[in-house]
Amino acid sequence: MENPKIMVVEDENSVALDIKNRLKKLGYTVAGTASTGENAIKKAKKDHPDLVLVDIVLKGEIDGIEVARYIHNNLDIPVVYLTAYADDELIERAKHTEPYGYILKPFQDKDLRSNIEIALYNKYITNSN
User: 4-aspartylphosphate-modified residues are where (predicted)?
Assistant: First the structure.
């Protein structure tokens, strides 16, 4: 897939900007950002990105796990979690959304790139069968 569009769902502006800059440096197109779950779902419906990077803890009524569940079930867009949280309860909830990856903050560019590439490849393989 050439120049995939990636949406970033992150409620901390400075972190969202850092992720956007890293994605651009790695050659990806940023399809937009959202800081709340509600806004993330609205933007994903409108822009239909190739992949969504989602933090688990977000501002608003809907957390990142619920965003991922909606996007997976209704929009068929792969989701990769990008979060600082890895407790057993959250991982248990997150795995039921069938994410294509789970990256812990702080992260390296190579972690971001490898998870994105694997997610996009798996999505492509799933759709071509």
Answer: 55
Q: List the helix and strand counts (H, then E) for the chain.
A: 5, 5
CB 65 within 8 A of CB 40: no
Confidence of residue 128 (pLDDT cuts 50, 70, 90): confident
What top-level class would CATH report for the domain 5-124?
Answer: alpha beta
Go through 34-60 and write b for each residue having 16 or more CB atoms within 10 A of its CB, e for each that does not.
bbbbbbbbebbeeeebbbbbbbbebee
pTM comes to 0.94
Helix, strand, coil fractions of the chain, as percent rounded to 5:
50, 20, 30
